[in-house]
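Here we describe the complex-level prediction in full. Unlike the single-chain runs in Section 2.1, the two entities below were treated as one system.
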Amino acid sequence: MTAATCREVQGAIARDDDAPEVIAETARHLRGCADCRAQEQARSRIRQGILRADDQLDDLTRARVLGRLLQDRQEQRRQAHTKRGQAGARMWLGWTLAWTLAFSAVLVFAVLGVLRARRPAAFTPIALLPYAVHGDASSNAPSSGGLDRVELPAHASMRARLGPAADFVLLGPLRLAVRDGDDTRAAVELRQGTLIGDFDGSTGRRLRIVTADATVDIVGTRFLVEASGEHTRVSVEHGRVRVESHGQVRFVGAQQEWTTDQPGVEALDATRASLFQRAAREDLEELVPEAAAAPSTAAAPSGADPSSPAATGPTLAEPARTTKRPSTTHASNRTRNVALRMDGTRSASVPDVLPQATQAAPSRPQQSTSPVPAGAASSAPPLMPALMPSPAIAPPPAATGTAPAVAAHAPVAPAAAPVETASSLYRQAESALGQGDQVAGKRLLDRLIRAFPDQPATDSARYELAVMAEKAGQSGEALAQTREILRPGANGPFVEPAQFLRCRVYLAEDRGAAAACLSRFVRDFPGSPHDEVALRALIELAREGGRCDDASRLAETYLQRHPTGRFGAEANRARSHCGR
Amino acid sequence: MTWALAFGAPGSCRVAVAVLAQTWLKSDARWSAREDGASDLSDEELIRRARDEEPGAVQQIYERHATAVYRRLTHLVGADPEREDLMQEVFADLFRQLDSYRGTASLRTYLFRIVSNKAYDHLRQRQRRRRAVVDSPGLSALEQDDTRLPRSPAPSPEERVGHAQELALIERALERLTPKKRIAFVLRVADNLSLKEIAAQTGATVFTVAQRLRHADRELRHLMAQPDSPTRKRES
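The structure predicted for the assembly as a whole is:
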């Protein structure tokens, strides 16, 4: 045979049409061709190698996978059921709504018209939620707990959130009112003062700031609006805003600013750039270096505009004290966490305001958490003339009123420990057992069982412990664990393996109990992969007890269930020996 | 022999019989004695019941085919520790697709098709992760675990070392094949499937399967002769 033929014959691996004569020829050829024999041997070695890998599915894996599958399926069914229910409810609701709407549309429009006509001008579905105040501040609060108007004296500043997307730093002297808004749009009137804003317009939200002579539309950016009675300055750090003033429209882009009395847009001034950076540090004290100088009494602040409603409106029962977000690590004796309190009829709302505000503080990442060195505030350059330190220096806030003073710098809470779940414990135990650390593995499994007695992983843990106990010869422990798995009403995937394990343990201890256990096993689990061996053991035990009839009957059962089983010949012999 | 002893001298051999029975039971803990459950229901009937969400149907399908699926997965991907997860994915896919199973092929064939697809995805991921073969348990890992091979006589230390080296060599060679060639080769050589069956399970034509087999055979022989040489990895 030529080399080409040899290749062809060997290539039969890739053909299905091996006729008997081809096979015979191959065999003949292999006898005489050392090269071909070597090739065939190599292939045979590979085949043996593949088949030698352990491909037997053990009980633990089998039951564990089944358990997960059943759990998965149950979850799918639950979700499908929920979806069906929701679909039905939606359909019913849809029809009901359609009919209701059809019959009452005119009425609804009429009612809406009346309501619109009677709606108060300052209707504010959303409100400012202050979460940090520095210096003296006065504000009124609606019954909902937020603020629809803020007035800050000189040297005071406030951080507040407006809706889900806007975060403001307000620098006094300032007068601001929330005009209108909901979760998608908001309008703020800034009569006087400086507002540094961070607005996320990514989901279509819009923010409008109205000043005396300009309307600023913001879609999503970091910006500053500084309003005086005469003109408005708009500065932008990121993004772009639209400003309309006196019939002129200007677009102010990143690192630009425009003052309404100036002809064109200019580059961002260093003072404003610095202000942006300081606001980003989220440290009000740095923005208002002499805030502690604010009066500590309930008297109207010296820098406040006497004509402002704040002078006659509700004021803080005690001076506003600064608040800081817990994550700020800057240390300062002049900065404390406080709870603000209002006097008069509105006092009840304020203890709710700041806690709420603090809890609802925007969750955006801290832009800078680097600590500011002591004294940095006083050495910082003045932000703008209005924020220059006031000569009236207030006493230290330690002497202030009755508001419960919280510790100056609440320690940063330690990172929460990862939540321990049944799955995580089981994984740890598996890992420990995989590394041969039986003690740690057993301890973790025990902990799992104690902590999560009703979880799907618990039976798996019990079964593993039972197998370990059986291997260690601790039959009592093995039986105890399997008893838990086989508790009344149990129907999990580990019931069958646990029952079989129990029978194995009994066989070493008590023949009678083993026979009863195995009988129950072959009755309850005829589909078990262990059925064949269980039947064979039962036959042996029947023989051992001299119960030939039982042995014969069991052999009959074996042959019916496993006509091509491994022990078929022996079962036949057992049956014939007993005269059947 | 055991049975003859037992029946020949019941009194004297009781202990021996009991001990042997116990030995069988213990060794069976790692066995999967049977691929088919004792249930008389056909696969089609079980599928129908599972579709109707009758209790126990899913378990019976699983019990009936789990062993074969696990064995096929082992042949295709080796003794990979992720076989358990792969098996779960195979059955999860099956139960998810029960409604689309039309019975044109047997359930076992349908399952093996899912197995081949899962194995292919897994082998591709494994190659992409560039997992070093020496670090993976592979074929040889469980060879060292006597408890998992109850039917094998205990080999001598020299034999064990020889086996381990041989398996490592084969494992490295198989790992260097592309997943498609590997699957075709294993199905043909280890599971004795015909080209048509392989084509049906892998979704390729018979001609393509034959080409893959030829290439795989040639590359493997080459690799077995020179185990450390680099292999061209190109899909047929």
